[in-house]
Amino acid sequence: MSVSIKSEHEIELMREAGHLLEKVHNELAAHIRPGISTKELDRIGEEMIRSLGCTPNFLNYNGFPGSFCISLNDEVVHGIPSTKKIIQEGDLVKIDAGLIYKGYHSDAARTYAVGEVSAEARQLMEVTKQSFFEGIKFAKAGNHLNDISKAIGAYAAKYNYGIVRDLVGHGIGTHLHEDPQIPNFPQKRRGIKLMPGMTLAIEPMINIGRADVAWEDDDWTVVTMDGSLSAHYENTVLITDGEPEILTLTK
Questions:
Q1: Which residues pair with 112 in a beta bridge?
Q2: Please, which of 5, 42, 73, 223 could form a disulfide with 81 given CB 3.0 to 4.6 Å?
Q3: Which CATH architecture has domain 8-246?
Q4: Where are the domains of the chain?
């Protein structure tokens, strides 16, 4: 396994890639409303990315046909934007996005509630987000990768949620997916030792029901096997000499 350590110059480029993606997420959130199609959200978001002088890194990645992964309700990740998918009041909308700035990638995902959602759905969103923050308490030089995975999994497990095992986080840099893989559940091995200059995309994917998932016929969209709601929260994180720096979340 080869985990890249970024130079100061590379960190600056990664930082800017992260800040620009945060801006896109924040601006796109205002367009999420009942009646809009996921395809239209994708179009608006792609325009934003290109207006910043960046490239959407998901578009045509292994053949993916959209610039954003937009997944609704029981769709976990990798939902393909479509004119036939119209957002409704009460939906959970997961938007996963990334961009390339001067050859460096950023990646982040958010889950949004459309209007009024159930208390169960709201709790799932909050726990998924908090499990990320529980994990990055351990994203410090000298700790091991499994310290992050264990903390994410332990927090979500308190709520008896299904922690998706078939999909994991990843390293990121000049490629969207780099070593190491970052599970959201504990491993038998401690994993790599964390070092300053590592950049990681940490992304809990949590189901309200069972952990099992399936791929739809489009070979992309991942859904919960039992039809239960799922939430996703992700940021690009820099390991430093001290506290981790969240490159895609400055506010």
A1: 93
A2: 42
A3: Alpha-Beta Complex (3.90)
A4: 8-246
